[in-house]
Amino acid sequence: MIGSLGLKLARFAVVLSVFALWEVLSRTGMVNPRLLPSASDTIAMLGQLLQRASVRSDLAVTASEVAVAFVLAVPCGALIGFAIAENRYFAEVAKPLLFFAFSIPKSIFLPMFILVFGVGFSQKVGFAFFSTIFIVIMSTTVAVDSVKTEYLTVARSYGATTAQTAFRVYLPSMLPVLLETVRISMIFNLTGVLLAEMYASRDGIGHQIATWGENFQMEQLLAGVLMIAIIAMTFNELVRWVETRCSHWRT
Amino acid sequence: MQPLANVTRLQPASRAGSIQIKNVGQVFKTSTQSVEALSDVSLDVKPGKFVVLVGPSGCGKSTLLMMLAGLRKQTSGTILINGAPIVAPDPDRIGVVFQEPSLFPWLTAEENVEFPLTLRGVDKAERRRKAQEALLLVGLDGFAKRHPHELSGGMKQRVSIARGLVQDPPVLLMDEPFAALDEQTRMTMGDELLRIWAATGKTVVFVTHSLTEAVYLADEVVVMSARPGRIVDHLTVTLPRPRTYEMLSGDAFGAMRDRIWRHIRKSA
Amino acid sequence: MTISSTTLRRMIVVSLILCWEILPRFHVIPELFLPSLSSTLLAGWTDAGEYGHALMVTLYEVAVSMVFACGGGIIAGAVVGSLPRPRVLIMPMVSSLYAVPLVILYPVFTVWLGIGSESKIAFASIYGFLPTMLATAAGIQTIDPQLLIAARSMGATLTQRVTRVIIPAAIPTVLSGLRVGGALVIVGVVVSEMLISSAGIGYLISRYRTILDSAHVFAGVLLVLVLAVAFNAIIRFVERRAAIWQTGTHAGADAAGGDAPAILPATA
């Protein structure tokens, strides 16, 4: 068995070799460097981009859209999810409809948001909200269902109040699933914002990436892709880290 | 489950197997140390006997059974069944029933029983006929078309026994087959197994944790100790057959169970 | 008096459809925001030829991408899922990669491959690949190892273990991978057509959007919805056929319209 340190080193080596391959392909001219600028050039460009005021303001726009959509979608979705999961009759009525809504592609409704809101902040936030909320509702119902009835029965038989049940039974049992919800809904949310920006927008990093693509500015384009990937993966790993912290009691 | 009538007619007590285990040892090696799981185990089983292996957890009784099944290789010693060594699974000589029924969920009860025959390319009519016989033997002839998830735990284990018997092997190995069942089902299944055994005359090697089950079922009980696994006692159960529920509270039964328990307590 | 949940649900669906027709008709909602059902259908009907042609382009791209995404995802998932070392090494990296919003890769493909079908196929293939791979790898790991041991005890050869145990056991997983990956492929193709292209349903939607012809936009959206729902229904039908043996709980979840715990982005 390889140790966990060895495993980390091995993963690091895999990532490193991908970048090395990228560098070699471009440097040796096996792939046209105009189509694939070298890894080192791309990383250097990424550094430059982060210095630029315009890129920074694009990032700020995107970040604010992501944050607003997230702050709206997660609590709304969680509340609806709770309401559905807690009421049996309501659940029977709503669940099939929700499953349906969940399974249809949301991206194709993007033009609707432009027709309704025009091009701007509210359209992008609206679309991101729309593409995130269903996954939050779904995951919350799953999270509530994951609370074992035995625990509730035990709590009730020892005379727990409603508040005590909520904070001492529901919350700890659901925490891992809720964090998972946060993680996955962020993936949806980010995709929603970036797609909306790429489709029709005047600002935001998604818009910038689309523009670089249209102008064949490969170095900037790849640096942008790299930047988004790093941000998304960092957030993802952060939530995962908290997840493992919080669910240490899970075997 | 139907009570079983004249099954003896269907599956004549044909071939019973003999088993010789000679000085078998098993050593597990890890990078830092080696652990002796079985040490110098020797055992002779006469054809048609019902032998039960008992012992504390980790005494290697299941390991020994897996070696008899050809699923695992011993480090030293030899195992002969009907005089020939066991080097790989040999469904001609050995049928195996596991603790989990291990039925293929996508096959019906009947198809599960046919499975060993399917593997050997037996033609369909022949397969069907043999599977029907085996299912009748275990009292499930009405359930041939059911899938495993439509059967209770006891019924699944019956299908698994039918699968073990379908090729009419001289030896049937059973690895804690009733451990996952509830007490009542377990008792019923014990009686059913004895009936099937009497009808077919197989040699049975049966592993269990339950002392009561061991004495109730066995001709001979082999008691093993842990670290390293070795045989510490080998007793012959003198109770008459057929065994009945009343025997459980008799003195003879209690004395044998106590004798086994003393060995196990010492070793655990 | 209470009405059954199914009745209420039907009433909700019917009233939603009615609202879709009535609210725009009476200008409660502007037709620019939401064209009525009838005008949407009419728009689709009058330009059926144009939509049909676009549908052919989209279907072609979906079909080719499906081969790459699902074929590649299933094979890669099966390999990674069944080999422990690569699994431990790669799986966490893959699921981390999964967090990246892949849509930003589309401009890269348009630079490399142009705005024709090739860039759509490349993008949709990548889009569908990861979830299919993750689902398949997870499913392969859920195969009960005991089934393989049982098959071995019955003398199954390696080939027989693959064809008679591993493949049938993996079918439900592969199908659900196909369902998830296929849905993403459809989304990937349509979204990339919406972004930059000169043909396909996504292109039609975008073109009518720029001239603010809501009815034609909606007709295109409706067509994609029908496509996605039909694809989902077909796979579910096959799933139910193939997985008739699966446990009751699974069938129950299916009846409710999906596997609740399988939180995979069916659609982004």
List the helices and strands and how they pair.
The complex is a heterotrimer of chains A (251), B (268) and C (268).
Chain A: H1 4-27, H2 39-51, H3 53-86, H4 88-103, H5 110-117, H6 121-145, H7 149-157, H8 162-199, H9 205-214, H10 218-246
Helix pairs in contact in A: 2-10, 3-4, 3-6, 3-8, 3-9, 4-6, 5-6, 6-8, 8-9, 8-10, 9-10
Chain B: E1 19-29, E2 34-45, E3 50-54, H1 61-68, E4 76-81, E5 84-85, E6 94-97, H2 109-119, H3 124-137, H4 153-165, E7 171-175, H5 183-200, E8 203-207, H6 211-217, E9 220-225, E10 230-236, H7 251-267
Parallel strand pairs in B: 3-8, 3-9, 6-7, 7-8
Antiparallel strand pairs in B: 1-2, 1-4, 4-5, 9-10
Chain C: H1 5-25, H2 37-46, H3 48-82, H4 84-97, H5 106-113, H6 117-141, H7 145-153, H8 158-195, H9 201-210, H10 214-242, H11 248-255
Shape of chain A: globular
Bin the helical content of chain A: over 70%
Helix content of chain B: 25-40%
Identify the CATH homologous superfamily of chain A. MetI-like
- CATH class wording of chain A: Mainly Alpha
Query: How many β-strand stretches of chain A?
Result: 0
Q: Give the CATH topology of the largest domain in chain B.
A: Rossmann fold
The count of β-strands of chain B is 10
What is the string of SSEs of chain B from the N terminus onward? EEEHEEEHHHEHEHEEH
Oligomeric state of the chains in view: heterotrimer
Strand content of chain A: under 5%
- The radius of gyration over CA of chain B amounts to 18 Å
Unreliable parts of chain B: 1-13
What is the string of SSEs of chain A from the N terminus onward? HHHHHHHHHH
- Low-pLDDT stretches of chain A are none
The biggest sheet of chain A, with number of strands, parallel, antiparallel or mixed sense and barrel status, is: none
What average pLDDT do the residues of chain A reach?
Answer: 85
Looking at the overall shape, the CATH architecture of chain A is Orthogonal Bundle
What would you note in describing this structure?
The complex is a heterotrimer of chains A (251), B (268) and C (268). Chain A is mainly α and 251 residues long. Chain A has helices at 4-27, 39-51, 53-86, 88-103, 110-117, 121-145, 149-157, 162-199, 205-214, 218-246. Chain A has a single domain, classed as MetI-like fold (Orthogonal Bundle), CATH 1.10.3720.10. Chain B folds into two domains: 19-93 and 169-267, P-loop containing nucleotide triphosphate hydrolases (Rossmann fold), CATH 3.40.50; 104-151 and 158-167. The N and C termini of chain B lie far apart (39 Å). Chain B has helices spanning 61-68, 109-119, 124-137, 153-165, 183-200, 211-217, 251-267, and strands spanning 19-29, 34-45, 50-54, 76-81, 84-85, 94-97, 171-175, 203-207, 220-225, 230-236. In chain B, helix 2 (109-119) packs across helix 3 (124-137). With 268 residues, chain C is mainly α. Chain C has two domains: 1-34; 39-255, Orthogonal Bundle (MetI-like fold). Chain C is 77% helix and 0% strand. Chain C is built from eleven helices and no strands. The two termini of chain C are 41 Å apart.
